[in-house]
User: Fold these one by one.
Assistant:
Number 1:
Amino acid sequence: MADPNANRLWIQEALNLELAARDARPLSQRLYDALRSGIQQGRMSAGQALPSSRQLATELGIGRNTVLSAVDRLLAEGFLVSRQGAGVFVAEWQWAPRPSCNAAPDTELSLSRRGQRLLDFAGRTDERPAAFAPGVPALDQFPRERWQRLLRRHQQGAPLEWFDYQSAGGVRALRDALCDYLQLSRSVQCRPEQILITQGAQQGFELIARLLADEGDRVWMEEPGYGGAQACFASAGLQLEPVAVDDAGMDVASLPDATPSPRLIYLTPSHQYPLGSTLSLARRTALLGLAQAHDAWIIEDDYDSEFRYSSAPIASLQGLMDNAPVIYVGTFSKVLYPGLRLGYLVLPPSLVEPFQRLNARLHREGQYVAQAALADFISEGHFARHVARMRQCYRHRQALLRNALAPAVQQGLRLSSGHAGMHLVAFLESHALERKLVERARQADLLLSPLSAYYQQGSGRPGLVLGYAGASDADIERGGRWLCENWMALAPDVTPQRPR
């Protein structure tokens, strides 16, 4: 049997170590941590008696209530047991051996096959260099003070029912404001009742996949395309069918005749992500007819339609025909800020009720204060003014990037048109050059997103997706000069010599 005196000495030593940590934990928490650690590590074996609370308090020089607080927690959690008339003892239990803290977890064994596949779509999230992260808006330009005033207004006057579970599809004022805005700026055909407020576009994709498709159904997707949508549909067990994209957008005619019919068709018709093309009118009408013929739903992702620099925003695909088989998806992550976590779906009338029910069941509606503030932000004109300012800001930042890359362009580097959006694509001649530039940029604290990573099949087209919207002027100029110099230094080594 273990020596009780040795046990008391060990407890005293352990507590002294805890006291030496100099953190903000209460003394009872430190004693609890020391005792629990001793039990878990086997320093205090099962059935071993614990010194009485009075003895521990005296020997450790602390109050008895402090000891009782720690012991009571361990009794409640099952680490200790109390025997009437005998005292407190370490409980009979078994602890699975812990792996070494230095051993790397075997993710192939601990993750599901579906999880492994989803990680292929997921980029790194532990870094956010100043340039050139795609899809990041100019957070420094957001009118935070005005936004905070609107939030305070609705926090102070929030009705009691906003604190309860909700299932109405969102704050009515926001759906009214959105309906007016979408009809005017995007020619969307809808009523406020058809709008469902979500916690971002990703939640909208998930609802669509769960309600409108079964596992194994086909979803046609742009190739290259948006990894977030790819991951969402893959996680739902859908089969992704890549469809080539050219200067006129998704080219359904490029698919082999034997291609299985789709249940869903996902695309970004106004400004294709990431190549930047616009779906032609002929292809829009053909796609609507194809969806009707195959009883399929078109998912129109309109992620940054507000930012066009040479013309007015393109009218939505959804508004081209009455009762179009289209679900229109929008988000405020790009036009305002990602942390807002608000997006929306414009649903055909027949889908409104089931989508509202499932959204309320799976995700629980919320952020009604933020929704009400956003409704005022739109209806009072702040939204339109902010979009206009951002359009001017992004046009300026794109010009800075083009100017920094001008020497390389003169030597043969080709850039996308940049007529809209928040990024440019630099097309490269080889994957070797793409890999070298990405690796060098990482060492220089720049984020170069390889274009080939946006493809589902094969090695994809080599290039770089250069986000400029969220970077400062200085970061754009510095990063642009770095890229220009490194492209000019590396290109001759990894690509055929260009004719002069």
Note: The chain is about 45% helix and 15% strand.
Number 2:
Amino acid sequence: MPRRHIRVTDAAEAPLRAALHELRVRLEVPDHFPPTAQAEAESAARAPRIPAGDGEVVTEHTLDDATDLPLFTLDPPGAQDLDQAMFLARGPQGGYRVHYAIADVASFVTPGGALDAEAHHRVATLYFPDERVPLHPTVLSEGAASLLPDQDRPAVLWRFDLDADGAPARTTVRRALVRSRARLDYAGVQRVLDDGTAEEPLALLREIGLLREERETARGAISLNVPEQEIVERDGSYTLAYRAALPAAAWNAQISLLTGMAAAELMLAAGTGILRTLPAAPDGSVARLRLTAQALGVDWPHHTSYAALIRTLDPRRAGHAAFLQECTTLLRGAGYTVFDGTAPPTSSVVHGAVAAPYAHATAPLRRLVDRYTSELCLAAAAGHAPPGWVRAALPALPHEMETGTQRANQVERACVDLVEAALLRDRVGETFDALVVDRHDDDPTRGTVHLCEPAVIGPVEATSGGPALPLGHRIRVRLAGAEPGREPVLFTPA
């Protein structure tokens, strides 16, 4: 999981654009698609070929017609790569019915073709503060494959019948032709939910989301509401601030999580699949977080579990926001587990944060593995063997996804370093109030501090032979260096 999310407001974008371009060049991030891959994408956009099995295809016209469902999408403002659309209703026999459409990327990408090869090379969409580098050409990811409103699209359509407590009673998944009716954003949805004017499908997002959150709590799962770090302009200069995600975003995430858990169950039952796994946090890591909580003024009673504490935090508070960032250290070590023919014991493939088996299934426009998850689930639901091209790709997927994840994390870390250095380069030598939130085990004179203002988290190093950093305490630090693209921020105790 990335350490933090960053976005750049329009006002702050221009001074950083050149530096971010240099960063992309240095990290060898692709700036275009090979001509053969682009040509395949443009051809597929005009005539998608929906796979129905090895060597067999169907057309849009023979898909199950689900265009009568009044689906809607829910994404950040301006998003064009729309992976999911939903429609929520009360169940015919009580409880709830959730329709969840996922972009059918396999309808546009021919296995073994140039576009497929490029997707395996890129693995995932890369996010920079000023732009994104897509997994698929925009003619697909922001066009023919995206679930844009008022457009007929091939989709992988899930249906969940939930009981009155939000637990799945029946799950189905099939290919279908769908048509989204509205493109909504989090702020607008939150507004109508809060003022009571939301129509039932939207009102049910909160109702179902809260029930799913209760079930998540009962499982002992961990849900981090990590705030975005935003660059804002103030009085002619730039600074950093945290922006907390809205509750509507968390309720939307619960529908995605429901789908990922259902996908894992389907693949385990069928005996072939790929799961996202995360080991339990290592011994001592929670104890260390207790010291961090003390440093940041987070009240953590001894009788309260880590999972329960997380749900009490307010990401709009600076100390809580910093603590949530540090909590992501417990989510390291995630990977992918492939099985083909015999399912592993469920206990060995539990995702530590989800507290259940889980699969990446809902973002195929932006993440390679989700395309394969969809195919495996469709085959499992139909009682068929998975397509040969899917099984052939499975052994290499964990390494490919690990490589892509490492690249995305490298991009994210480099962007953080660049942005913080750009914002602080003219303040070298100044002192700041800070909290020591981490200390190296092998060298207690080195660690990490969180500035009280601006919202910067950076390394601190004391002079050789100096005293150990006071983990969990407030200190004054001096900015020793900050040069965008050359030297990340570095602090020393003042």
Note: The chain has a mean pLDDT of 88.
